[in-house]
Amino acid sequence: MRKLRAALLFTLYIFPALTLGQGTVFLVIGSDTGIWDGLNVNNYHCSIDATLYTDPTRNAARVMDPAFREAMVDYYGTPMKLTWWMMAGNMFRLSVNTDIPTPSTMPIYLMKRYEGDGLKLWGDELTFHFHDWYWSDENGDGIWYWNQAPAFPVIAPEFDQTLAEILIEEDVFPVSFRSGWHAMDNPWQHRLNEILPFSMHNDYPAVHTDPVEPVDNVYDWSRAPSTYIPFHPSTTDYQVPGDGPGWNLRSRYMSVADSAFMASIFAAANAGIDQVVCLWAHLPETDFLDNLQKVNRSAHAASSAYPSVPYRYCTAIEAMQRWLRTSDTTKPAITLAEYSVGDEVGWTVEVNEPIFQPVPIVAMKDRYEDHRLLPMTQIGPLKWQTSETVRRSDLAAIAVAVTDSSGNHAKEHLQYLPNDIYVDHGDPGYEEPNGTWSSIPLRGWGASFRTASVSAQDSASARWTAGVATAGIYSAFLRFPAMSVPADTIHVTVTAGTTLVDSLIPGALIAGDRWTYLTTANLQPGAPIVVNVTSRATAARTMTADVLRLSPLVKDQWLTAQEIFDAGELIVGVEVMREVRILNWGIAPASVLSARTSSGLFSIVGTFPNVVPAMGSAPIQLRVTPERVGALQDTLILTTDDPRHAEMRVLITAHGREYYVIVDDGDSTGYWETGLWSFSVAQAYRTTSRYAYPAAATQATFQAVLSRAGQYDISEIVPTTVNASDRARYVLRVAGIAVDSVFVNQNTGSGAWVRLLTADVHSNDTVRVTVTDAMSPVISGRVLRADAMQFQWIAELGATDVTNDPAVPSATTLLQNYPNPFNPETRIEFSLQKPEFTKLSIFDVLGREVAV
Question: With the CA atoms of 244, 246, 251 and 254 taken in that order, what torsion angle do they form, in degrees rounded to the nearest 10?
C-alpha cells in the first residue's frame, strides 16, 4: 500500500492533468495579432495601415466592448479572457511608418494605446508572436520576397533584437508564446527553453511544405501529441515529450471548435483528465468576433451535456498555472545595480528565488536606437553580471526580465536618457493662430491630423510649444502628413531658449509622412522650445499639421543606407544609372571616403570623399549595362569616417530582361482617351487605373515608339476585377497601319499581364493599341478598363520563320501526361510552333487551379 501511494504521488507530480476525480477544461482563447493592411511580402519597405486599432468600428475596439464580452461567460460566470500574441520585428521594423514611435513594436504599441483600458478591464494577456520572415531570393530568379526562414539560426539575431525592443519600448516580455505559421525546429525550441516557459503552437498532425516563393507556412507536427495536455518538448526533438524545461500545448484554429469538438474535450475532462485547449484566430479576420461567439456557444452546449465538468476562460499564463496547481503567484524580486569600468558601465542582477531562464534577460538601448540583449555570467547563487560593458554616454535605457517556473514574471527598467517628447495637435502645447483648420481622421499621429485650405495670397499657421524635464541636447522634428497639393512655402521659426532658428522650406520639398528635421539645441527645464509654422500660397493650396518630436537620442555621426537596394528591371545592353542614397542621422557631417562593388557589375560614378551633411543625405551614383537576362546581383562597399560604420555594404539586386516598353495610364505622352473616363484607386501597375462605362466614341489609346526592330508580344494589365467588359476590342496599328485586332474578356487573368497580340516592328516604328468596348448587348454594371500596356521584344525579325524546318512542330500541341498522376511525379510535354511566352495551368478533378 505504501508503494502504491508513493507511485501515485509521483504520477500526480509529473502529470498534474491526471486527477482522482472530476477534471477541468481550461480554455485559452486568443489571437495571433498583427496588421494585414499594407503588409506585403513583395515589398522590402511596407507602409502599414493602423486603422485596425484606431478605427472604433473595427475589431480591436469591438472585441473590447462590454456588451460583447459580458455576453460570453464561463462555468463560474467570468467573462471571456483573451490572450493577445502580438507580432513585432522584421517587416514592421523596416516599414516606412512614422505615425508611431517605434515601427518594430507597432502592433503592441497600438493595442496598448488604443485598447489598453480594455486589456485591464477584462484581464487579457498581452504577449509575443513572431513570424520568422527574412528578405531573400530562395530560387535565385532575381525576385526577392519576405520568405519564411529555412531554419531558426538564420533569424536568431532578429528574434533576440525584437525581444530587446518589446522589453525596452513596450515593457512586454513573453511568458506564453506562439510562433508564426506554427514554425518550429530544434534550435528554436532550444532558444525558447532559455526564455519562456509556456508555448502554445503544437499543430498536430499538420505538415506543410512550400517550394514556391514567397515561402511560408512550412511546419511539421506529425509526431506531436494529439491530446490537449501540456508536455515538455524533448531537447532533441521539439515535437515529442521529453526533458526540456518549458511546456508546449496543442492549439487549434478557432473555427474548428464546434459542438462536437467541445463535447470531446469535456468528455475527457469528465473522465478525470484536465484539458488545456488553445484556440486561436486573427483579429483582422471579418469573422473573428463570430468565432469567439461560436466557441462560447460550443462550450455552453458541452457544459449542458456534462454539467459536472467546470470550465474556465483563462489567459495562457493563468491556464498553465491552474493546470500546474501551483500555489506560487508571487513574482520574483529583482535587484538591478550598476558597476563602472572607467567611462563604461555594466550591471549586476540578483533575484530572490530560482528562475526559469538560465540567466536573466537584460536588454539595452543606446542613443543610436540600437536594441540588443546583453550576455550574462553567473557570479553567485541567484546573482549574475553582464559579460560586457557599455559606454555610459551612449546609453539610453536598460531593462531586465525574469520568470519563475510557475510563470510569475518581473521586469525592471533604468532610464539613462529621457524618452522622446511628442506634442500632438490635440495636446495642450498645440495652437492654430491663423487659418481655418479641420481634422482628417484615421491617419497621422494619434489617428488624425489637421489640415487648412490656403487660398491665393493667404496663409495659415500652427504652433507647438514643448518643455523638457531633463536638461540636455535634443533634436526637434516635425511630421507633415502627405497631401496632394502642398503649400508653396513653409516658413518655420524655432525658438529654443534664447536661440532663434529661422528657415524657409519649399512646400514641394516637404517629405509627406516623414520626420522633417528642424534643429538641435541644448534645452533646459523651464525654457520651452517653440515651433511656429506658417504656409503661404500663390494659388489654392493645402497645409497640414500633425506632431512635434523632441528626441534626446542625438548622434554625432550616424551613416545609414538600406541593406538591400533593388535596381529594378534592366534592359540587356542598355546603359542606365541608379542612385543609392546615404543618410546621415548625426548632427556632424560625415564622409564616404571610397566606394567599390564586389563583382564590378555596377560601376561607381563620381569622386570621393563624398560629404554627407548633418541630418541630410548624399547620392552614390551607379552605372550598369546588363549583359544577360535573369537575376543580377552585386554588392556596394563603402568606407567612411563614421567610426561606428567604417565599412558599409549594400546588396544590389536587379533583373535583366530583353528590351521592353511599358505605357501606363499616367504617361501623358503615351496614353490618351476619348469619352467620359474616371480614375480608379484599384490598380495593377503603378498607383491608378482608368475606367469608363461603355458608350460610342469611348476609347483609350496606348502608344510607344520602339527603338529596336523585332517581334514583340503585346500584353495588357488591368486591376483584379469581376465587373470589367467581357468583350473588349484591342486594335493594333504599326506605323499608322491597322495590322491586327483581338477581343478579350478583361476579367480573365485580371491583375496580371495578359498577352494580346504579336507584331513585327521595325526600328523606331510607332506602335499604337486602341481599346474600345464591343459587348453586344452591353451588360449592365460592366466597365471598360485601362491601366498599362507592355511591348516585349521576343525575337529578331524573321528569326521565327521556321516553317520549312522539319524539326520544328507544325502545330501547338499538348500531349498526354505520363505516367498517370497517381505516381509521385508525372511528365507533361507540349510543342510550340514558335518561341513565345507560355502559360501551363494545372487543375484538380474539381476544376480548381493548383499550379501554374
Answer: -170
Phi-psi region of 393 (alpha: psi -120 to 50; beta: other; left: phi over 0): alpha
Residue 371: name the closest of 179, 169, 211, 508 by CA.
169
DSSP codes joined into one string, 185-204: -HHHHHHHHTT-SEE--B-T
Backbone angles phi, psi at 109, to 5 degrees: -60, -45
- The total number of residues shown for the chain amounts to 852
pLDDT in tens, 219-232: 999 999 999 999 99
Peptide bond into 643 cis (omega under 30): no
Is the pLDDT at 10 greater than 70? The verdict is: no
Q: Nearest-5° angle of CA 443, CA 448, CA 449?
A: 100
β-pair partners for 641: none
pLDDT of residue 402: 98
Q: How far apart are CA 750 and CA 42, in angstroms?
A: 19
Give the span between the Cα atoms of 357 and 373, in whole angstroms. 14
CA distance 642 to 584: 10
Q: Name the strand (E) or helix (H) holding 514.
A: strand 514-523
Burial of 434 from C-beta contacts in 10 A (0-12 / 13-18 / 19+): middle
317 CB burial (10 A radius; 0-12, 13-18, 19+)? buried
β-strand partners of 220: 207
The contacts of residue 67 (CB under 8 Å, 6+ apart) are: none
Cell readout for 741 is 485586332
3-state DSSP assignment of residue 61:
helix
Q: Please state whether beta strands 660-664 and 125-130 pair in parallel, antiparallel, or not at all (unpaired).
A: unpaired
Q: Is the peptide bond before 481 cis (omega within 30 degrees of 0)?
A: no
- The CA R_g of the chain, rounded to the nearest whole Å, is 31
Distance CA 508, CA 723 (A): 38
Instruction: Evaluate whether 558 touches 472 at the Cβ level (below 8 Å).
Output: no
Would you state the cell numbers that stand for residue 18, as one nine-digit string? 491526471
416: cell is: 539613462
pLDDT tens digits along 608-667: 999 999 999 999 999 999 999 988 999 999 999 999 999 999 999 999 999 999 999 999
Average pLDDT score over residue span 697-702: 96
For residues 364-391, one letter each, b for 16 or more C-beta atoms within 10 angstroms of the residue's C-beta and e for the rest, the string is: bbbbbeebbbbebeeeeebebbbeebbe
Please provide the DSSP assignment of 407-430 as one string.
S-EEEEEEESSPPPEEEETTSTTE
Is omega for the bond preceding 360 within 30 degrees of 0, making it cis?
no
- pLDDT tens readout for residues 79-113: 999 999 999 999 999 999 999 999 999 999 999 99
Any idea which residue has 539613462 for its cell? Answer: 416
Q: Which residues of 277-288 are buried (b: 16+ CB within 10 A; e: fewer)?
A: bbbbbbbbeeeb
DSSP string, 472-487: EEEEEEEEE---SSB-
DSSP 807: T
548632427: which residue's cell?
A: 587
Residue 11 has pLDDT above 50, yes or no: no
Give the Cβ contact number of residue 847 at 10 Å: 6
CA distances from 489 to 508, 546, 625 (A): 8, 17, 40
DSSP per-residue string spanning 110-174 = HHHHHHHHHHHHHT-EEEEEE--EEEE-TTSSS--EEEEPSSHHHHHHHHHHHHHHHHHHH----
pLDDT tops 90 at residue 851: no
The Cα–Cα gap between 173 and 411 comes to 8
- Round to whole Å and give the CA distance between 47 and 39: 7
> How far from chain centre, in Å, is Cα 632?
26
d(CA 91, CA 47): 10
Q: What is the pTM of this model?
A: 0.84
Of the chain, the end-to-end C-alpha distance in Å amounts to 69
Give the amino acid at 282.
H
> For residue 779, what are the contacts with CB-CB under 8 A and spacing of at least 6?
726
